[in-house]
Recover the amino acids of this structure.
């Protein structure tokens, strides 16, 4: 009844290394966090008969989820089609191709839903054309948050009882999944989500964003808003500067979402001495060597990125206000509609 | 044989601190539990050999204890013998306090005592599981263990025994009993199976560091996850009382009717809080009794 569908391929890469960052703050450093939900979703799909041996997987992703699927597809003999967009950079593109994935790059954003929705629409066409193919659907698949039990266990193994969890929100899987598991044991856990300006996840009006890997133009079903006590929005400049701080001060060469989580976690930890804080650092920095860690690129893309860092966030009265700098809002574990009220849909 | 008879003694438990499914090193998931031993209640067995062909037991009807004695003879006796098992137990039946396992373990140990053989705890537990289908972990006294109650194997040995605990014991349904054998084992859904991972991690931390507060959190979470398989009337109310009077947590008998509010003996305010919690439980129309569980 409980027989597991194995193999243990790459499973040892799923767990984070827990690094103390001073005070009671710990960074959960992942090699490639998405390996965990990807492996778990594929395993469950096999168990449910949705994914046959040698079957085809189709997914929309411009980031690390695509990479994780491609690695697992190679190991398990699946065919993989990835629908991506501009955020799928040259190096990642090359890697996905070397891993045998087929790529379809969407050039034009959807007028309302942006690139994310344009990608999903293109994906539907592919799924129609390839009957029997499997769509992991990381934004909607409940197995995505469910897979994070192992991460919650890992945090407890390393640091014991936890007071505060900080991380960026994209699909909602890592933060909402981990938070749910930790809250079964620590009901008073403070959960802080980190988003970026112009992301609709927590109520900002949709507009182009300069950082990928967090936020988005549509609200994934896996974002369980009731898990969050506090939401922070960071501008690209603070995120980049913070990734450099994490590297320069702690030797951790991590991606931009790690920088975003570090910024907020450091501040909260300093404000709450004695509280045990874990920040999620989802991937390493190598993928961003030509961007986040290239100062010429930074200077041209995000002018003044390394200027003065804000000491603390500005509290905003509503998540919908126009933001130019680091902002914070006390979410209080409410639904999105409860926070925003019955506002008319924004066009 | 030098001895004319053998004796064996086994203790009750007050339900479990954790029960669920867990990874085993063989890569498979196993049902497992951590019992909360309750040494004050015991089953005492006396085995007296006789010339008959079979094993008999009294009180009559304790078939599993008889079978356990029979299996022990078959496994260890050089010469097959008949005999009689006399059981004296003060463990309530059908409450999830391990009355049946205690009879089985006492009987096995009575026969072993008579035979003067000393197998490992795991070997004894496998005989117990053969006789009884499922077993608790009370035999393991030196260190707490996560025990696969249906396979008779230890999934994990913790570094220490359970810390001393003060328990406010409540029978949630004194008028009904649960038969462990007829009770269908919980069929956990995949999401529930995953929940046990962080629980196991915190349990390990709690036992290793003697942290009663964390132990209570694990027990509470286990009770909540398992509630849908064997609902305990008044569990929510008991949980509310537990948090109002700063109990470390709430543990239950996963195949019985007992529940216990866990208090930390090191907490200076615990005696007063236990007193107030008792009054609140009285007001629910339930009866409670304080138990002191010493560190093994």
């Amino acid at each position: 009844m409980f027989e597991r569908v194995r193999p243990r391929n790459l499973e040892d890469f799923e767990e984070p290394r827990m690094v103390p960052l001073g005070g009671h703050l710990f960074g959960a450093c992942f090699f490639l966090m998405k390996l965990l939900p990807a492996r778990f979703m594929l395993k469950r799909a096999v168990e449910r008969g949705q994914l046959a041996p040698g079957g085809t997987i189709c997914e929309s992703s411009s980031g690390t989820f695509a990479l994780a699927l491609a690695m697992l597809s190679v190991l398990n003999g699946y065919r993989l089609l990835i629908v991506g967009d501009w955020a799928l950079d040259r190096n990642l593109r090359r890697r996905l191709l070397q891993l045998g994935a087929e790529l379809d790059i969407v050039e034009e954003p959807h007028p309302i839903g942006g690139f994310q929705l344009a990608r999903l629409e293109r994906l539907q066409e592919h799924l129609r054309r390839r009957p029997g193919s499997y769509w992991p659907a990381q934004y909607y698949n409940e197995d995505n948050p469910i897979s994070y039990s192992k991460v919650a266990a890992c945090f407890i193994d390393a640091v014991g009882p936890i007071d505060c969890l900080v991380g960026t929100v994209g699909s909602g899987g890592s933060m909402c999944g981990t938070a749910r598991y930790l809250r079964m044991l620590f009901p008073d856990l403070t959960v802080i989500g980190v988003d970026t300006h112009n992301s609709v996840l927590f109520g900002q009006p949709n507009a182009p964003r300069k950082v990928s890997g967090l936020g988005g133009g549509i609200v994934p079903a896996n974002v369980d808003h009731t898990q969050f006590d506090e939401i922070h929005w960071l501008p690209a400049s603070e995120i980049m500067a913070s990734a450099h701080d994490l590297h320069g001060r702690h030797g951790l060469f991590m991606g931009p979402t790690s920088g975003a989580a570090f910024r907020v976690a450091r501040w909260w930890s300093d404000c709450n001495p004695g509280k045990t804080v874990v920040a999620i650092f989802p991937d390493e920095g190598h993928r961003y060597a030509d961007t986040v860690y290239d100062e010429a690129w930074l200077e041209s893309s995000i002018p003044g990125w390394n200027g003065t860092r804000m000491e603390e966030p500005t509290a905003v009265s509503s998540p919908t206000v126009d933001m130019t700098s680091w902002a914070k809002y006390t979410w209080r574990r409410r639904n999105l509609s409860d926070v925003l009220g019955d506002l008319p849909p924004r066009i | 044989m030098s001895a004319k008879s053998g004796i064996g003694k086994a203790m009750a438990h007050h339900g479990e601190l954790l029960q669920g499914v867990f990874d085993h090193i063989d890569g498979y998931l196993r049902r497992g539990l951590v019992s909360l031993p309750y040494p004050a209640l015991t089953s005492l067995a006396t085995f007296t050999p006789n010339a008959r062909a079979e094993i008999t037991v009294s009180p009559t009807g304790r078939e599993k204890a008889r079978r356990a004695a029979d299996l022990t003879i078959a496994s260890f006796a050089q010469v097959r013998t008949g005999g009689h098992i006399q059981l004296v137990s003060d463990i309530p039946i059908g409450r999830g306090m391990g009355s049946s396992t205690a009879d089985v373990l006492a009987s096995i140990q009575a026969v072993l005592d008579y035979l003067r053989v000393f197998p490992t705890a795991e070997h004894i537990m496998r005989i117990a599981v053969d006789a009884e289908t499922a077993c608790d972990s009370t035999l393991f006294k030196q260190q707490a263990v996560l025990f696969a109650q249906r396979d008779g194997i230890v999934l994990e040995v913790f570094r220490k025994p359970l810390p001393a605990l003060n328990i406010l014991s409540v029978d949630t349904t004194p008028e009904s009993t649960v038969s462990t054998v007829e009770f269908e084992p919980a069929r956990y859904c995949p999401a529930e199976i995953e929940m046990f991972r962080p629980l196991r991690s915190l349990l390990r931390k709690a036992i290793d560091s003697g942290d009663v507060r964390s132990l209570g959190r694990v027990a509470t979470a286990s009770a909540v996850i398992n509630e849908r398989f064997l609902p305990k009337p008044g569990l929510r109310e008991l949980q509310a009382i537990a948090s109002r009077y700063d109990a470390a947590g709430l543990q239950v008998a996963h195949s019985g009717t007992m529940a216990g509010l866990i208090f930390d003996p090191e907490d200076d305010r615990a005696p007063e809080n236990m007193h107030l919690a008792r009054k609140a439980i009285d007001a629910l129309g339930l009866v409670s009794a304080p138990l002191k569980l010493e560190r093994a």
Q: What stands out?
A: Residues 1-5 of chain A have pLDDT under 50 and may be disordered. The longest helix of chain A spans residues 114-129.
